């Protein structure tokens, strides 16, 4: 297909979502298989318009489409036109029990433009779902219900598209056709029967002969402990149903883990800045350190603690995916200088100063250095 998606829907590139939706409805009606039974051109057009709408209605897909251009985008997506097919590599093989799906974790690689899926025959589109969770949820793991709006198999015709299936006259039931391109003969998916090898004489009235309908479904996603921003989960077969009963696409849940007000995360380790009263820093004492498990841990600090001093609490970081072990928590202390002193406090500190400051070595060393430099 060389016509770009905006042209297909007859809208400008700056069209709003409402304009796109309106244009899609008009165009889809014009060439809906219900009104053109047996018309292969209309069916092809209907498929193309749906494909264009799939991309342009989704903010992220549309942005990628605008950025990479029609040819690059569709090439990156593979022949089936499915989002996410360009992410083909790097499956982590992470399976876990508790859901009916095959769940696989992986890092996001280069985004679009990956390798082409081979022989993408009549497969439903992959769907992306963005999910943001709290750091606390990433720490414990959680089950989460998400609602997705996808094409699902039409129940009325069991995905077949209608009654009276006939051997497709275009491909003779092979599901693919051969075309000469210069010196080569190229085998492609049959555009009439979408590789099923069958055509429908009486299209199903529920799905207009496509074998699928749009439906909102709620799925339970089992998010294990230790996930991070950029991790995506694949729910196999939970994407769009294919036209006329082919293989369904996958659903990809892209995770974002929110920033935490106290803990900063770097991979499996956590960082936390902890204020210490000036007097405790000088005299030493107990300081309560917050931990992600909610228990907290009291640590002893030695007299003479300085701002910037670090302490590592082993195993108090984030859980490591798949392993059952934990990262570490790095505490960075910050000594707090009191403000708005009462007169009594001032009195005491004046007395403290009068008792001598020889042990404030950084200050006296610095002073000595300055003296040397300017003499
Ligand atoms: Zn149907
Ligand atoms: Zn065919």
Helix content: 10-25%
Biggest sheet: strands, sense, closure?
4 strands, mixed
- Which ligands does the model contain, each kind named once? zinc ion
Q: Taking Cα atoms only, what radius of gyration do you get, to the nearest Å?
A: 31 Å
Structural class category: alpha+beta
Could you tell me the number of beta strands? 16
Order of helices and strands: HHHHEEHEEEEEEEEEEHEEEEHH
CATH superfamily of the domain at 263-373: Urease metallochaperone UreE, N-terminal domain
Spatial order of the strands forming the largest sheet: 1-9-10-2
Poorly predicted residue ranges: 77-120
The rounded distance between the terminal residues' Cα atoms is: 81 Å
Percent strand: 25-35%
Number of helices: 8
CATH architectural group of the domain at 263-373: Sandwich
What does this entry look like structurally?
The chain has 375 residues and is of the alpha+beta class. It has a domain at 263-373: HSP40/DNAj peptide-binding domain. It is 25% helix and 29% strand. The protein has a four-stranded mixed sheet. A four-stranded mixed sheet has the order 11-12-16-15. Strands 3-8 form a two-stranded antiparallel sheet. Helix 2 runs antiparallel to helix 3 (40-56). Mean pLDDT is 83; it is low at 77-120. The structure holds zinc ion (2 copies). The site of one zinc ion (ZN) has 7 residues, from loops.
